[in-house]
Amino acid sequence: MAGALEGLKVLDLSRVLAGPWCTQMLADLGADVVKVEKPGEGDDTRQWGPPFVRDARGEPTTQSTYFLACNRNKRSLTLDIATPEGQALVRQMAARSDVLVENFKVGGLRKYGLDYDSLKAINPRLIYCSITGFGQDGPYAQRAGYDLMIQAMSGMMSITGRPDGEAGGGPLRVGVAITDLFTGLYAANAILAALNVRDNAHSGTGQGQHIDMALLDVGMAVLANQATAYLNTGEIPQRQGNSHPSLAPYQDFPTADGAMLLAIGNDGQFQRFCVAAGQPDWANDPRYASNTLRVRHREVLIPLLSALTRTRRTADWVALLGDQAVPCGPINDIGAAFADAQVQARGLRLSQPCSPAARTQLQVDAFHTVASPLRLAATPPVLRHAPPLLGEHTDQVLAELGLDPARIAALRQAGVV
User: Fold this and answer.
1) DSSP 169
2) Residues 6 or more apart from 155 whose CB is under 8 A from it?
3) 38-95, pLDDT tens digit by residue?
4) How far is residue 397's CA from residue 387's CA, in Å, rounded to a whole number?
5) What is the tens place of the pLDDT at every residue in 163-173?
6) Could you read off the pLDDT of 177-234 as tens digits, one per residue?
7) What are the CA-CA distances from residue 181 to residues 69, 185, 217 (Å)?
8) How far, in Å, CA of 214 to CA of 141, rounded?
9) pLDDT digits (tens, 9 = 90+) for 345-374
10) Which of 204, 215, 274 is nearest to 18 (CA)?
């Protein structure tokens, strides 16, 4: 089945996470993504481990699990863009591409003649997406940016974690590189918008454009309600663990055998909770009659709830409240999450057979990743390639450019590919 982006050609000069996350999304939707990697080294994340994939004997291979997270459905081409021959090949591919994604430092590709203005002259239809830490302008434009740094600078860490006065209090990073991931998603959205501007049957310009994505911009944007709370009140949001600044009860609670998550978002849910839990008087208490009042009196309400939730096991609460349409669930580790019946029913564990080369080199039959959450009824995500070995498709891609085996061999001998 053809994917939604069938026929779209993407040249991926990015590495690590934000750019590869963007291009994997495009690849899952059917785009032909060629990932350009440095010969002998490849994407930085190929070496980010442990953990590494285990072979049939249970021994670690040289394949990092990090790389698998964001590089399926792509073809890997090794190419040294610091050489004139490598630059010429990139220009040749750019002339045939719809989209180019890169995350070099600002101006880093200009010295190679691979910046937007240079490639626009070759292919005016090219959509060129640059991903940097701080954007193409401003006093920090030349600085390198990493997710952890942006989580700190944007204020994300200041609202993540327990308050300073509690055990374990202090700022924390989110457990995944959330700024990189959101930047990849925003970048993919911007690319799709630019494609529409270029190709729209009614108003298309026929022209590509430059997209300037900055991790800092995204880090500020995803502060969402916390940012608007500050901007409209002048009050700086504080860390408060797993509780919510604007909802109550909306946090973790202890149970007889561990903990659970209770996420009550409206008054009806609170009333149904009180009845199901055997405390109907709480629903009629004027201190808890509305969400605003429950937030105002959370110092009284939360201890009462905690004492009550300790009287049953997590599974018992989930069964009881699920029947009453009260949002409640376990706090799973990742293993338990993948074992969950709903996760399994949705097919969220994805296994892709390795290529013959990967089987031979790594002694691994399949790579396992998380399925795309994009569920298009008519054009669902397409599975074509497991995450590639370094340079696995070099000969194939160069042959598509018209290079014969002798020319490819000469480039390999010279270290260009």
Assistant:
1) B
2) 220, 223, 226, 227
3) 999 999 999 999 999 999 899 999 999 999 999 999 999 999 999 999 999 999 999 9
4) 16
5) 998 999 999 99
6) 999 999 999 999 999 999 999 999 899 999 999 999 999 999 999 999 999 999 999 9
7) 11, 6, 13
8) 9
9) 999 999 999 999 999 999 999 999 999 999
10) 215
- Rounded Cα distance, 243 and 331, in Å: 14
Question: Averaged over 91-117, what is the pLDDT?
Answer: 97
Res. 145 pLDDT band, cuts 50 70 90 = very high
Give residue 165's pLDDT: 87
CB neighbour class for 121 (10 Å; exposed up to 12, middle 13-18, buried from 19) = exposed
Cis ω before 50 (30° cut-off from 0): yes
1, pLDDT greater than 90: no
Mean pLDDT of 112-141: 98
Measure CA of the first residue to CA of the last residue in the chain; give whole Å: 33
Domain boundaries, the chain: 9-222+346-413, 250-333
Token pair recorded at residue 51: 């953990």
Q: Is 131 helix (H, G, I), strand (E, B) or coil?
A: strand
Q: What pLDDT score does 98 carry?
A: 98
Token look-up 């293993």 returns: 335
State the SS3 of 76-129: EEECCCCCHHHHHHHHHHHHHCCEEEECCCCCCCHHHCCCHHHHHHHCCCCEEE
For residue 354, give the DSSP letter. P
User: Which residues, in sequence order, are bridge partners of residue 129?
Assistant: 101, 211
> Hey, what are 88's tokens?
């010429």
d(CA 107, CA 116): 10
Q: How confident is the model at residue 289 (pLDDT cuts 50, 70, 90)?
A: very high
DSSP class of residue 41 equals: T
9-222+346-413 — its CATH code? 3.40.50.10540
Confidence at 2, pLDDT banded by 50, 70, 90: confident
CB-facing half-sphere around the CA of 70: CA atoms within 13 A: 22
Provide the 10 A C-beta neighbour count for residue 391.
Answer: 22
What is the distance, to the nearest Å, from the Cα of residue 289 to the centroid of all Cα atoms in its chain? 39
Q: What is the DSSP string of 60-81?
A: EEEEEHHHHTT-TTEEEEE--T
CATH class (in words) of the domain with range 250-333: alpha beta
For residue 180, indicate whether it is catalytic.
Answer: yes
Q: What does DSSP say about strands 366-370 and 9-13: parallel, antiparallel, or unpaired? A: unpaired
The one-letter code for the residue type at 19 is G
Q: Is the peptide bond before 51 cis (omega within 30 degrees of 0)?
A: yes
Exactly one of 80, 180, 252, 365 is catalytic; which is it? 180
